[in-house]
């Protein structure tokens, strides 16, 4: 299957790249590249896709992924509050950026394990991210050997944390990379949901120039999710963000997120998040206090 392949070019005299991105929204193609990627979200919120994982993200979200892992971050224009509402820091480096000899040394055992597991997508627990902000931000101001040593310091610190795998499949079973047709389909889905419009299988299959049965098979192979599961996940993640960030009633949030029936929304939310919408709001409000 074809896919959007991103070419990463480190600056002259460097073995890896650092990118500070700001804008009214964060939206990129579902893409892959050979480099590992460490992404810190400093502001903005939306939905994060890593391999077959689909989760909400917000400020201080920090994720490490391995090379050739399909990924995509999506925010909604309706949530943006200004030209720099979205702000991310991204570090991209090849697994052997520091040299095979260094990685083979016993002192680098934790780093070796970290890079080996990065193909699953590794999420840093939010309570540990503040301690990494200083080193991560200083990394962007350094050059030469001090910059390389700082990245090693950051990765070593991350390797010693209780990380959460985003995908249960072993790193050798990465989700198949998507193609340009899938990017067109995802763009159609996201625009429709952003405008509060329904998304049907037949209409989406037409965008892909496929019959509904053929499209269902294609979509599941490309994303490892059934079409209806993907749509449901987007709606529930949108509802989760509204529960945390607004004081609107659960009924209002359910309806805006595409659930006209409150009982159905409560049941779906509980099955996906493990808690009721009200408990979800209470827990996350308490953790942000």
Automatic annotation (TrEMBL):
Gene3D superfamilies: Homeodomain-like. It comes from the Bacteria. PROSITE patterns: HTH_ARAC_FAMILY_1 (PS00041), HTH_ARAC_FAMILY_2 (PS01124). GO terms for molecular function: DNA-binding transcription factor activity; sequence-specific DNA binding. SMART domains: HTH_ARAC. PANTHER family: ARAC-FAMILY TRANSCRIPTIONAL REGULATOR (PTHR43280), TRANSCRIPTIONAL REGULATOR MTLR (PTHR43280:SF27). This is AraC-like DNA-binding protein.
């Amino acid at each position: 299957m074809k896919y959007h392949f991103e070419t990463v070019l480190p600056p002259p005299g460097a073995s890896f790249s650092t990118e500070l991105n700001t804008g009214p929204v964060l939206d990129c193609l579902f893409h892959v590249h050979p480099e590992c990627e460490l992404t810190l979200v400093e502001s903005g919120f939306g939905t994060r896709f890593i391999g077959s994982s689909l989760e909400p993200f917000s400020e201080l979200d920090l994720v490490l992924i391995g090379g050739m892992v399909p990924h995509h971050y999506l925010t909604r224009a309706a949530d943006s509050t200004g030209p720099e509402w979205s702000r991310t820091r991204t570090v991209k480096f090849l697994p052997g950026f520091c040299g095979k000899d260094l990685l083979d040394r016993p002192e680098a055992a934790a780093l070796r394990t970290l890079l080996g597991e990065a193909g699953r997508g590794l999420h840093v627990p939010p309570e540990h991210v503040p301690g990494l902000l200083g080193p991560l931000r200083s990394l962007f101001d350094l050059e030469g050997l001090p910059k390389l040593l700082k990245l090693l310091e950051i990765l070593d610190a991350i390797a010693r944390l209780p990380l959460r795998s985003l995908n249960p499949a072993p790193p050798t079973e990465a989700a198949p990379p998507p193609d340009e047709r899938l990017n067109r389909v995802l763009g159609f889905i996201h625009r429709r949901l952003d405008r509060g419009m329904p998304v049907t299988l037949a209409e989406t299959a037409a965008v892909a120039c496929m019959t509904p049965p053929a499209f269902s098979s294609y979509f599941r192979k490309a994303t490892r999710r059934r079409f209806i599961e993907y749509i449901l996940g987007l709606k529930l993640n949108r509802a989760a963000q509204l529960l945390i960030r607004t004081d609107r009633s659960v009924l209002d949030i359910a309806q805006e997120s595409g659930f006209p029936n409150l009982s159905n929304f409560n049941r779906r939310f509980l099955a996906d998040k493990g808690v009721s919408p009200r408990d979800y709001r209470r827990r996350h409000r308490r953790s942000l206090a």
